[in-house]
Write a structure and sequence with these properties.
Blueprint (H helix, E strand, L loop, with lengths): L1 H32 L1 E7 L10 H15 L2 E2 L2 E9 L4 H15 L3 E4 L3 H14 L2 E4 L16 E3 L4 H14 L4 E7 L2 H16 L3 E8 L7 H9 L4 E5 L2 H14 L8 E4 L4 H7 L1 H4 L3 E4 L7 H10 L10 H20 L6 H10 L2 E3 L3 E5 L5 E2 L2 E6 L12 E7 L1 H4 L14
Parallel strand pairs: 1-3, 1-4, 4-5, 5-6, 7-8, 7-9, 9-10
Antiparallel strand pairs: 2-3, 11-15, 12-13, 13-14, 15-16
Length: about 400
């Protein structure tokens, strides 16, 4: 009886091992049939306009422009809504990589979700192309050999808008900060720039993500007497904060001004020029900058309710295109994420959104940034004609100098 029982246990163990082997080889088999790009984004929340469905279309445009195949393998684009929640984002990413054979995850607005996904991707040796999140931690203390941070980050935003506002006389600040990783990083980086440029931070208040009422936060900002109310938030939160400030008449007397530290063209469109005029903002992409940016926008707009693309959506296009070029140069059979990112760093990038760029050892893609001012209604010549250029920021100035990086991948 004892011998029979031992035999049953041994057979069960063998069966389990066979099932485990089958489950671990399933993604590999799926990967051989196609190259899968997973757009993990906010499809229905406060970042849906600046990323969301537009990011999915941008990825599809990159695949189309590349030719639709990598060697003999067709390229597929799949998408999912992370709902701006790290646990949901992590579970979706794990399912994609473990079961569905996804090779690369792109976009991921919301820095807290992105930081969780970046760690998972490193564990699975896949690739993460981050254009939606802003936290500099992605290329700093949480940097990874499998992650590339495209488009923008909180240092570039602070270095553009923050510095310009202080130099123009806005030397006292109070922050309205979204209470999660991105908002905290943006307040931190902008505070450092304000102080270094000779300004002073008088205080800050944290608000929840997707806040419905900004009145109490704005009253605290008003009572601070700061010249500048820095909006360390994004998407729907930025729109609602600016609308509420306008309704309160907070900036009417000219004693206080708003500084939108992360503002997208879709935000300006939602606000209207009457409300948004005069805002300074820093961005990596404006659709009407040159012939190439206009040509891309003309192709993109009909796919997404005639909206012009944001720099996040442009970052999805550019990063996916460069990823595919690197995989082609490396050989389609090499699926190691770290090896692919190493090849991406080796090759200079060139695309109609950002022009020429490079990827540093910390995973930061560097390119020019631009400081714009929102036009007054009378100065706009037509739909989506919203910005006038204040300053072009060279790539070497826009992002944190590599010698100041705390990334473990950077050789000191």
């Amino acid at each position: 009886m004892k011998t029979k029982l031992m035999l049953v246990v041994m057979l069960a163990a063998v069966g389990c091992k066979k099932e485990e082997a089958a489950s671990t080889t399933a993604p590999a088999a799926a990967a051989k049939k196609s190259v899968k790009i997973g757009v993990l984004t906010d499809m229905s929340g406060l970042y849906a306009d600046l990323a969301g469905p537009g990011s999915v279309e941008a990825a599809k445009m990159a695949v189309e422009d590349f030719g639709g195949k990598l060697g003999d393998l067709p390229i597929e684009v799949v998408s999912a809504d992370h709902q701006n929640k790290p646990d949901i984002g992590s579970n979706l990413a794990r399912q994609w990589m473990d079961v569905d054979g996804v090779d690369v995850i792109v976009d991921v607005p919301t820095s807290s979700v992105a930081l969780a996904v970046s760690e998972l991707v490193k564990q699975k040796d896949k690739v993460f192309l981050a254009s939606g999140p802003g936290s500099t931690d992605l290329t700093g203390k949480a940097c990874s050999p499998n992650t590339v941070h495209w488009a923008y980050d909180t240092y570039a935003l602070a270095n553009g808008t923050g510095k310009a506002v202080v130099q123009a006389g806005g030397d006292t600040w109070f922050f309205l900060t979204a209470d999660y990783a991105f908002g905290q990083a943006l307040e931190r980086d902008t505070s450092a720039v304000v102080t270094a440029t000779g300004g002073k931070v008088l205080g800050s208040v944290k608000h929840p993500l997707n806040a419905s009422d900004f009145s109490s936060f704005l009253l605290q900002a008003q009572s601070s007497k700061a010249k500048i109310i820095g909006l360390a938030n994004a998407g729907g939160d930025t729109i609602n904060a600016i609308k509420a400030a306008h309704e309160f008449g907070l900036t009417k007397g000219g004693q206080q001004k708003l500084a939108g530290l992360l503002v997208f063209i879709t935000d300006i469109h939602a606000l209207g020029l009457e409300t948004a005029q005069g805002l300074n903002l820093t961005t990596a992409y404006y659709w009407d900058r040159d012939d190439q940016t206009r040509a891309f926008a003309k192709r993109f707009a009909p796919k997404v309710k005639d909206h012009m693309p944001t720099m996040v959506q442009g970052g999805v296009y550019a990063s996916v295109l460069h990823y595919l070029k690197a995989r082609q140069a490396l050989g389609a059979g090499n699926t190691s994420g770290a090896a692919i990112v190493a090849k991406m760093r080796e090759l200079p990038s060139q695309d109609p959104i950002f022009g020429a760029g490079t990827i540093r050892a910390d995973g930061r893609h560097v390119h020019k940034m631009y400081l714009y001012e929102v036009k007054a209604p009378a100065d706009s010549k037509g739909p989506w004609d919203y910005y006038k250029l204040v300053r072009e920021i060279p790539a070497e100035e826009a992002f944190l100098p590599l010698e100041k990086s705390v990334c473990s991948l950077v050789k000191k």
